[in-house]
Structure formats: C-alpha cells, structure tokens
Amino acid sequence: MKKEKQSALIADNCPLICETYKSIISKVANLTSNFNFNTDITYNCNGAYEIIKRTIEKETSLNFVLLDLKLTPSTNRKILSGEDLGLLIRKLLPSTKIIVSTDCNDNYRIHNIIKSLNPEGFLIKNDLTSEELKNAIRNVVSNTPYYSKTVLKLIRKEIANNFIIDSIDRKILYELSIGSKMKDMPIYIPLSAASIEKRKRHLKKIFNVKDKGDRELILIAKEKGYI
Q1: Residue 194 above 80 pLDDT?
Q2: Domains and their CATH numbers in the chain
Q3: DSSP run (H or E) holding 206
Q4: Using an 8 Å Cβ cutoff, are 69 and 83 in contact?
Q5: Residue 158 and which of 7, 41, 141, 217 are 20 to 30 A apart at CA?
C-alpha cells in the first residue's frame, strides 16, 4: 500500500533536539504503513516563517509542527516566541496540527498555552521519552490529541475543582505568586486597584483562606494547579 505523504516542521533552538526529533519521526514512518514524513528543521522564528511562507506560496500542506516555546525572535520583532509562531500558524495554516514541546512546567504558563493555541499535542520535555514522542506523533497525525502526564495532571485538577476561576483571577494569583505589589497590579491587569483587591478577597473566600496575608492563598492556588 502506498504511504500517505506528511510534511512536518521541527522548530526548536537546540540542534541536537531537532536531530533527535527528526530521527524519531523517521522511525515512526518506518513502523507504520500509513505515513511517509518529509521533515524540515529550523532553530528560530525567521526560519520557521520562511517555511510557512513557502508552504503558502507553493500551495502545499504542512501537516504538523513540533514547536518549542523558546525560539529566537524574528529580526523584525513581529514573532517573539514559539507561542507567537503558533498563533501565526493558526492564522495562516489553520489545518496544521501543533505539538508543543517545552521544558516549561509552570501551571500558569501551561494553562495559557492551552487557551491561546489549543495544541493537538502538548509535551513537557521532563516527561519526554522517545516512545512518548512516537505515541504523540502517531496520535496527532491520526487526529487524536495527545498530552503528556504533567499537562494531563493540570487538566484533571481543573476539572476536579467545582468553582470558576477566570483569566483575570489567574493573572492576580500569578502576580501575587511572583511578589508583585497590589499598587502596581493595575499596570499589568486591566482593573482598578480596588477591583483587584475585591477579587482577591473573593478568591480567599473561594479557597477558604483565613490568613490575612497572601501566602496561604498562593500555596492553595499552587496546590490546585492555578499557578
């Protein structure tokens, strides 16, 4: 049976990781009778953009992208990170599947990436083995989402919680966790200081925090996976 041709892009700033990923993608192709992969590699946003532009100009397809979040920004500063690149791919190549592969294990960051990119695959490098990557690729190209255990743990924590924490609440919790002062928060959050304080009191009520300070609130929010 003739194999279906799949086009893949690996975007990671580490050449060794790129070569390892490419080797694993080739092994997936050898182990399956369904797919044959043509794989490009880039180490920065400039190179990735050129491949995206070429794909559009030639009216070809890019089936999936293995995307690191920490990519060197484009020289015009319009694409600052892997997340920006992912958003551009969503806009210009909406049928392209995205597999995020990152060493970031911050709950707040993971949540934001899920919300902004909604990737078909999400892998934390600390979870990653060659077998895990093979499974992710096989699943994603067959239209089945694949998240590694750290990401699944965060999602399960959120499902288990029976109250609603919106994006503003998360931002407040995050700013508290990194030591931001209340008087400075309106710089980063589109609310007045009084509104932020009111939300913080509500969060303490939700989490059943009795402490007048913020330490207990931060600890419980971290435990529940919100930061």
Answers
A1: yes
A2: 4-157 (3.40.50.2300), 167-223 (1.10.10)
A3: helix 193-206
A4: yes
A5: 141
| Residue whose pair of structure tokens reads 């990401």 in the numeric block | 151
Rounded Cα–Cα distance for residues 48 and 97 (Å):
15
pLDDT, one tens digit per residue, over 99-140 is 999 998 888 788 889 989 999 999 999 999 999 999 999 999
How far is 73 from 77, CA to CA, in rounded Å? 6
Q: Are 70 and 82 in contact (CB under 8 A)?
A: yes
pLDDT at 188 over 70: yes
Distance from the Cα of residue 120 to its chain's centroid: 10
Strand partners for 147? 122
| Number of neighbouring beta carbons within 10 Å of residue 100 | 26
Alpha carbon 172 to its chain centroid, in Å, reads 21
CA atoms 88, 92, 94, 96: torsion sign: negative
Residues 163-179: what's their mean pLDDT? 89
Q: Provide the CA 85 distance to its chain's centre, in angstroms.
A: 11
- The CA distance from 99 to 9, in Å, is 10
**Other Cβ atoms closer than 10 A to 118:** 12
Count other C-beta atoms under 10 Å from residue 2's C-beta: 6
Phi/psi of residue 224, nearest 5 degrees:
-85, 0
- pTM for this model (two decimals): 0.81
**For the chain, what is the mean pLDDT?**
91
Q: If phi over 0 gives left and psi between -120 and 50 gives alpha, with beta otherwise, what is residue 155? A: alpha
